[in-house]
């Protein structure tokens, strides 16, 4: 007769799925961090994910000096005269009705996007640092007259930004959605960005350098998978050790 040594393994058979389920729940709960709710404005209907637009700027020699491929979404907060309250307008920049222009200088590049028959002008200014061999978005501004405002036009500008940092000679790439806060009343959501404001050669992007968000997004599943594999290995080893001990304790009548 075998002594009652099977009880621990029945317990482990019940607890193992519970442990794995709790671990998976905790891991994915950590990844999906909720975004804070907007409480200062009444948002309009979400227009959905914007289309990616291909934009370029040429210099005086008719050579492309700035390339950008990205989806853009504007978050504008303003006082509505018709609704008599503060409203948050979410507007997608539509590439098929957007005209790109700008200028390129030695250490400064400008991308200007005009939509709605020039009623809306969105401007990005990039600055390079030859000492560090980097570039970044240093300024963004928006002017539009398509909103219902008492003043007639909405405008916002910030000349001290530090977004979309890349390396000279390389293009900047970020597949993850980002929110660039320009002012209290304006932020810009970017989607699947690839851009290069300096050192464009042959009308094509240079080798891409991934943003930190993309690297983190790729790293999280690897960490979760490794942790799960480690947990399974520990449980398996515990099972084998326990089974060996239970065999050693067999009693025959």
UniProtKB/TrEMBL annotation:
Biological processes, Gene Ontology terms: establishment of protein localization to organelle
Pfam families, A to Z: Lamp2-like_luminal, Lamp2_2nd
Domain Lysosome-associated membrane glycoprotein 2-like luminal: 50-200
InterPro entries, per database record: Lamp2-like_luminal (IPR048528), Lamp2-like_TM (IPR048524), LAMP_CS (IPR018134), Lysosome-assoc_membr_glycop (IPR002000)
Residues covered by region (Disordered): 35-56
Coiled-coil region(s): none
Keyword Glycoprotein annotated: yes
Biased composition (Basic and acidic residues): 43-54
Family label: Belongs to the LAMP family.
Protein name: Lysosome-associated membrane glycoprotein 1
């Amino acid at each position: 007769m075998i002594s009652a040594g099977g009880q621990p393994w029945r317990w482990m058979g019940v607890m193992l799925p519970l442990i794995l389920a709790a671990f998976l729940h905790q891991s994915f709960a950590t990844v999906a961090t909720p975004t804070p709710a907007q409480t200062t404005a009444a948002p309009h209907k979400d227009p959905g994910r914007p289309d990616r637009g291909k934009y370029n700027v040429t210099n005086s020699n008719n050579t492309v000096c700035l390339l950008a491929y990205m989806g853009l979404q504007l978050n504008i907060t303003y006082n509505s005269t018709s609704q008599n309250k503060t409203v948050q307008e979410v507007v997608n920049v539509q590439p098929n009705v957007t005209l790109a222009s700008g200028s390129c200088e030695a250490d400064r590049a400008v991308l200007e996007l005009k939509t709605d028959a020039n009623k809306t002008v969105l401007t990005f200014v990039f600055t390079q640092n030859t000492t560090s061999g980097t570039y970044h978005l240093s300024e963004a501004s928006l002017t539009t007259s398509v909103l219902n405002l008492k003043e007639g036009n909405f405008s916002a500008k910030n000349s001290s930004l530090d977004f979309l940092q890349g390396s000279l000679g390389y293009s900047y790439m970020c597949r993850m959605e980002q929110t660039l806060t320009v002012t209290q009343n304006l932020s810009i959501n970017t989607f699947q960005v690839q851009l290069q404001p300096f050192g464009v050669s042959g009308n094509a992007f240079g080798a891409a350098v991934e943003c930190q968000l993309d690297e983190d997004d790729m790293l999280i599943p690897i960490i979760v998978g490794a942790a799960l594999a480690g947990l399974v290995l520990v449980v398996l080893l515990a099972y084998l050790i326990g089974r060996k001990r239970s065999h050693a304790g067999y009693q025959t009548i």
